């Protein structure tokens, strides 16, 4: 497998506190990979480093064979707009915009004509079963509905990689199931890679494979044990 | 599991013959061990002897005669009693997984038991992925999803228990052998 995105010997510290202490990870095109581990293990930091939101202290982040860790913030930010989708625990929709406007926003920021952006947004809302909510403000939607709108917004630019950090952490089991099924369905259909950060084994089971972290390093045992190579 | 009570339940909506009952059982409880024909007929025989079902007709569809069975009033009462009786929640803590971990820790020590736990965790994770694929398949029936959910929840509980046990035992070990 050739990796679409990979991290090699990644290090990152918050001041004196190390979060990543030499993590290696590879994700192929169309692959859904769960990054798991207890809280504080470095999984969110890893996601932020791979997505180019955080700069690594040492190590390489390669996307399509380029070391994006060396890029400027502006270049990484552009890459996030064109090639990456982001999804967090709480949808983080813009409260003043309707669901439809929220989903169209990334396209408008990318320079798409308004009419086309609205039509594309509508088709993604429909794909996730929330078409009828297009004209509603986020504050009037349930958690599950908000998160499906957020998924539509993350998908609207048809990213090559979706970074999802505990995307169902705030939802009940059935609402979470709908969001995950939608994400994995699109990944399978379009060959989108997904990095799914979760502490929950049931969520991790939606992925093709799992990379467990503990104390900032990959935990091959998944149980926090040192494994002989 | 009580096959006789499940068969009584499957007869609650009207008479069925043995073949039909086997099919209904495997459809409704899709991830259970499929019922053998022999077991269906043997169970029906016992239920008939005890007056819980009765023969309600013969059917012939090009093949051999098929006897249909219907629930009797006593059968209906027995079914209602079974459904109303609360299952004792985990009266004994028994499972091979549980026994293996405890015996492993006693007999072989933390290191050796850990090796087993790692392998078991990998097997559990693989099965979790299989069941998740079954339940998210577009063709999955409600029965498939309910059965997969049941197994997924229990496997997840096993995983958490393994994790906690390992932590607990490692801590105890550090206290005893600092």
Brief account:
The complex is a heterodimer of chains A (229) and B (178). Chain A is an alpha/beta fold and 229 residues long.
Structure report:
The complex is a heterodimer of chains A (229) and B (178). Chain A has 229 residues and is of the alpha/beta class. Chain A has a domain at 1-83 and 192-220: P-loop containing nucleotide triphosphate hydrolases (Rossmann fold, 3-Layer(aba) Sandwich), CATH 3.40.50.300. Helices cover 34% and strands 26% of the residues of chain A. Chain A contains 7 helices and 10 strands. Chain A has helices spanning 43-50, 73-82, 99-109, 114-127, 143-155, 173-190, 201-204; strands at 3-14, 17-28, 32-36, 58-63, 66-67, 84-87, 161-165, 193-197, 209-214, 217-218. In chain A, the strands form 2 sheets. Chain A has a 6-stranded mixed β-sheet with strand order 6-7-8-3-9-10, sandwiched between helices. Chain A has a 4-stranded antiparallel β-sheet with strand order 2-1-4-5, covered by helices on one side. In chain A, strand 1 (3-14) and strand 2 form a beta hairpin. The longest helix of chain A has 18 residues, at 173-190. Chain A is globular and about 50 Å long. The model of chain A has no long low-confidence stretch (mean pLDDT 92). Chain B is mainly alpha-helical and 178 residues long. Chain B has 2 domains: 3-84, Orthogonal Bundle (Arc Repressor Mutant, subunit A); 96-176. Chain B is 67% helix and 10% strand. Chain B has helices at 3-10, 18-28, 37-49, 73-84, 96-136, 142-176; strands at residues 16-17, 53-60, 65-71. A 3-stranded antiparallel β-sheet of chain B has the order 1-3-2. In chain B, helix 5 runs antiparallel to helix 6 (142-176). The model of chain B has no long low-confidence stretch (mean pLDDT 88). The interface between A and B is medium-sized, with 17 and 21 residues.
* Topology order of chain A in helix (H) and strand (E) letters: EEEHEEHEHHHEHEHEE
Largest sheet of chain A: 6 strands, mixed
Q: How much helicity do the residues of chain A have?
A: 25-40%
Query: For this structure, what is the CATH homologous superfamily of the domain at 1-83 and 192-220 in chain A?
Result: P-loop containing nucleotide triphosphate hydrolases
Proportion in β-strands of chain B: 5-15%
Q: Pair with the most extensive interface?
A: A-B, 17 and 21 residues
Tell how many strands the DSSP assignment of chain A holds: 10
């Amino acid at each position: 497998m050739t990796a679409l995105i990979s991290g090699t010997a990644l290090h990152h510290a918050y001041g004196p506190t190390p979060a990543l202490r030499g993590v290696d990870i590879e994700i192929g095109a169309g692959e859904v990979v769960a990054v798991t581990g207890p809280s504080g293990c470095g999984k969110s930091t890893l996601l932020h480093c791979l997505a180019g939101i955080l700069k690594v202290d040492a190590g390489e982040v390669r996307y399509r064979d380029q070391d994006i860790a060396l890029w400027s913030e502006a270049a990484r930010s552009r890459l996030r707009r064109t090639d990456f989708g982001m999804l967090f625990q709480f949808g983080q929709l813009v409260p003043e915009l309707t669901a439809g406007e929220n989903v169209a926003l990334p396209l408008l920021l990318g320079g798409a004509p308004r009419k086309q952006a609205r039509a594309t947004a509508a088709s993604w809302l429909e794909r996730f079963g929330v078409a009828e909510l297009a004209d509603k403000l986020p504050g009037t939607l349930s958690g599950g509905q908000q998160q499906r709108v957020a998924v539509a917004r993350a998908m609207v630019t048809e990213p090559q990689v979706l970074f999802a950090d505990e995307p169902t952490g705030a939802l009940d089991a059935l609402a979470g199931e709908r969001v995950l099924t939608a994400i994995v369905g699109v990944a399978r259909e379009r060959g989108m890679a997904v990095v799914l950060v979760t502490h929950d084994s049931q969520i991790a089971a939606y992925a093709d494979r799992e990379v467990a972290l503990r104390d900032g390093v990959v935990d091959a045992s998944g149980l926090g044990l040192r494994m002989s190579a | 599991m009580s096959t006789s009570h499940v068969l009584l339940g499957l007869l609650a909506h009207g008479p069925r013959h043995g073949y039909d009952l086997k099919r209904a059982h495997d459809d409704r409880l899709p991830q259970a061990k499929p019922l053998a024909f022999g077991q269906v007929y043997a169970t029906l025989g016992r239920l008939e002897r005890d007056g819980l079902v009765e023969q309600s007709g013969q059917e012939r569809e090009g093949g051999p005669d098929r006897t249909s069975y219907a629930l009797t009033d006593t059968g209906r009462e027995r079914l209602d009693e079974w459904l109303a009786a609360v299952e004792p929640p985990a009266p004994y803590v028994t499972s091979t997984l549980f026994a293996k971990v405890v015996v492993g820790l006693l007999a072989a020590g933390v290191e050796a038991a850990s090796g087993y736990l790692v392998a078991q965790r990998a097997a559990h994770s693989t099965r979790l992925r299989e069941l998740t694929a079954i339940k998210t398949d577009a063709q999955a029936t409600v029965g498939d999803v309910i059965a997969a959910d049941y197994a997924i929840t229990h496997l997840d509980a096993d995983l958490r228990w393994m994790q906690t046990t390992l932590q607990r035992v490692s801590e105890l070990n550090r206290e005893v052998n600092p």
